[in-house]
Each structure stands twice: as C-alpha cells, then as structure tokens.
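Journal club side-thread
Mid-discussion, someone asked how the predicted structure for our own chain would compare to the paper's figures. Pasting it here so we can look after the session.
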Amino acid sequence: MSVEKPLTGSDSRCRLRIALFASLVLAFLICHPAFAQEDAGTPGLDPAAANLERARELLREMDAARQEIQALIESSEGMSGEELDLKRVPAVEIVDGLSDHTVDLLNVLPALDKSIAARDSILHALESHLRFQAGVVREAATRNSDRLAETLRLRGGVPPEGRGRFEARVGEHERFLDSNLARILEIGRAVESAGFDAPEFWEWMDDFLAERAGQLRIRLQLAVLERRRALEQIEAARELGITPDEDQLLLFHAAEIRVDAIVSSLSATADLMDARGLPAAKYRILAIRTTGSITEHILNYKVFLGLVRGGADDILGWLKHGGPTALVRFGIVILFGLVFRLLGWFFWNLTRLFLRPPKLLGDLIGRLVRPISTITGILAGLWFLGVNPTTLLAGLGVAGVIVGLALQDSLSNLAAGLFILIYKPYDVDEVIQAGGVLGRVKEMGLANTTIITFDNRRFFVPNRKVWGDIIENRSLEKVRRVQATVHVSYDDDIVEVLRHISKILEESDLVLDTPAPAIFVSKLDDSWLEVSVWPWTKTENWWALESQLPLILRVGLAERGVTVPYPRREIDLSPEARPEIGPGV
C-alpha cells in the first residue's frame, strides 16, 4: 500500500506562484486586441479591413454564380420542353443564391469607410451584378411569357382526357412567371436602395405588367365563357335524363383549373401593379366577380365602387334584354295563383254547403284553403312555363324540416289544434273554460284559440295549453242547474217554508218543470236552518237565473211572511247559571 507524502511549506508556496502566473497570462491573452480579432474570425485585421475583406469575398462568390448562370444560358440555347425544364431548376437555385449574396453585400456597404479607394470599385461591381441579375430575370420572364403563348396555341389539339393535365402545366408556367416578376421587383428595389438609377428598368417592368394584366383579363373572360358553355351542356343532358358525357365532364373540370390558374396569376399581377403604383382596381373587380370570393381588396373604394357599378349594369342589362319576358312570365304565374285561389274558394264553399261541417272546422279549413290553393296555382304556373317544380318542392321540404326543428312549440300548437278539430270538444260561440280562461270561443287558428270573456276581454290561448288542460264546455248540454241557499229561522215552520219556495220557483219563467227542482234542508246551523235550492234551466238562460235567483227567493219569502234570521248567541248572566268555583281556585 502506497502512502501519500504530506506537503511541506516550500511545496505549497511553489504551487501558489505557478497558479498566479497562469492567471496573469490568461488575462493578458483575453484582453489583447490581437486575441479578440482572432476570436472574431478575422485574425490580425481591424473592423474596417474585415468588412472590406467580406465585401471582396461576396463579390468573388457573385462572380462565380454569374459565370455559372452564363454557362447555363449558353448550354440551354435551342432546348425546349422537358429538357429546358431540367435546366431551369438549377438556374433558379443559382439566381436565388446570387440574390442572397447581393443582400449580404448591401448590408456590408454601409459599414465600409467612404475614404477607402476600393469602395468605388465595389460599388461599380455591385451595379454590374445588379444589372446582370435584372437582365437575366427579365430575359427569363420574356422567354417564359413567349413559351407560355406558344403552349396556349396547342390547347385546341389536346384531347379531353389530357386537357386537365395540360391546364395544370400551363398553371405551373403562370406561377413561374409570377415568381420571376416578383424577383424582378425585389432586384429593382435593391438597385434603388444602392443609390443606382434604372429608369429603363422600371419602364420595362411597368409596360410588361400592364400588357400581362390585359392578356390575363382577356384569357379569363374566354375561360369563363368556356366553363359556362361546358356547364350548360352538362345541365342540358341532366334535364333530359341523360348521363353527361365523360368528355363534357373532363372539359368542365379542365375549364375550372384554367379559371383558377388565371385568377391566381391576375391577383399576383395586380399585387405587383399596386406595388408599382399602377391602376389595378379593374383587375381586382374581375377576379372577385369571377370567383365570387370577397377578399380584403373590397375595402379599396375603387374596387367597391366598381363592383357596385358592375352589379347595377348587370341588373339594367337584364331588365333591358330579359325584363319584358320575365314580366310576362311573372304575370302568368300570378294569374295561375289567382285562378287557383278563386277555384279553391268556390269548391270549398260548395262543399261546406252540402256537408255543413262544424263552424270551428269550417273556419279553419276556410283559412287554409286560400294559401294552399294559391301556392298550388303558383307551382302550376311554373310547371306551365317549363320550370320543373320538383327541385323547388324538395327545397321546401328541407326548409320545412329545418323550420320544424326551430319551431317545435309552434308545431305542438299545430298538433293540438288538429286533435281539437278531430275530437271537437267545443265549437265557435260556445262557452268553455280551458287553459285557465273562462269565456266564449270567438275563433280557432292553427296556433291558438281566441276566447272572449264575459267582461269583454280577448284571450289568445295556445292550443297546446287548451288541449293539455281540462276543457269544460258549458254550452254543450241543453239544460243546466243553478244552486242557491236560503236561511230559515228555527221559529218558522220549515215545511211551510219549503212549500213557499217550491211555489216561488213555479212562478218563474226561467225555471224548468222537468227536471224538477231539488229543495231540501242541507245543514242545521246554530242560528238557522240552511235550505239548498237547485232549480234547472235552459243553458242559454243559465246566467240570467244564476244572477236573479237569490233576489227572487228573498222577495217571494218576504211577501209570505218568512223572516230572515241573523246570527244570534244567548248569554245567561244569572247567579243560577254561574258555575260553582271550588275552594282550591
């Protein structure tokens, strides 16, 4: 086993001196300017020299990219089709790299000392590269535009099964051209930011954008017409019950791809025109009216006013060319509706004359006959004009389901109204108590029943409340009973009093002999005998007898000497009546 030797005092002082020396050396290296420059990646150079070296490095990379682009341009001479497309991919990558180097160089330029002689040569080289990029991209845009025009001339010879792929390929050319134009705009802005003048460059771009926008506008209008024509052929075949031809469907699909691609390019061109301050409102309007999609560009007052003006022109044009025909057709539909309404009213009145339905049912059906017959007449008029009402009826059915889900309470009222019509618990002009309301039935609708109370208040009671509650029909029976109470004193002869009451009822014209009135002692009270009087009367005279019977009995009994008893309680205060109080109280 090894034993560690303890440190002596001289060893400790030696190690301390070594540590201090190492710390001083490290601090010197960190703080020394040369070390800081080496750490920054530019050994031995000050910041101005480092920026100059960076600018020269970027120029060398830009020169190399420029040579590669020139080599690709020379090698692509005479190429076409897929072979040219293969060359285009690396060219785009090199141009993108050249643009990135240009941006980096523009960022380095402000840091260069203006007193450096090499700065002017760098600016001259940068201007040369920018003009080269602008020329290359401009030439690419011109060639792509020419190639696109050549491709479009081949559309007529493409079969329907290949038309979709053809339009997709044209769309790719459109997007590539749009990207070239966007890159040209970026290069132009870089030229301006570097302080170089390029009026001929902007003049070319403005002319190119205006010409391209005009061509896209014409092509879009033709594409919309082609799409409309294909759709009309498909709809005509379906109206005849024929399955549309596959070629028609393919052509319609290709027309939709064509329209979408042109609208996309037209919108991109309009964005570039806005960036250049060129008028682009009419192209925005065309894109919105073609697609029907509302974009943020509608907030532009020129676009909004153009859309309003275009809509007004469409309406005026329709009124001018199709207005008289539409007016005549509208008149025919209205005439059919009126004729069917009159026929429905006539046949319903004829039916009611022979069948004599209940008044409540008759009024309700009479209110339903008018709108149903009118709607039937309108549908017949549309059928007469050649319009197939099946689609309209299907739409009304779907709308009815939606409305039914939203109006469940109203449908429950309708169902309750139908049950009331079927079971007929009451009729118009009958007195009922239902839904917490007592009165005479005025009328009944599909949703509610109108009741007039005896104090002339009108209540509209929902049918579901009427049907869901107890219904008391006070007009259904021919006779009704009236109830009254008479108090007779214990001092009077009760048998004689009952005879007087019977005589009084016989003398009244409102009381029926059959069924006979019921007169009996119903209660023995402390102060009197309570006699119940239950005469019968016709239903229409019930309220008259109900209100007059107490007075008739009071007057008749008073004439016969029968007194009216009052509540009475006797209190005996004599000593004999007092209770005995015990000694413990």
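Post-session note: The first strand starts at residue 431 and ends at 434.
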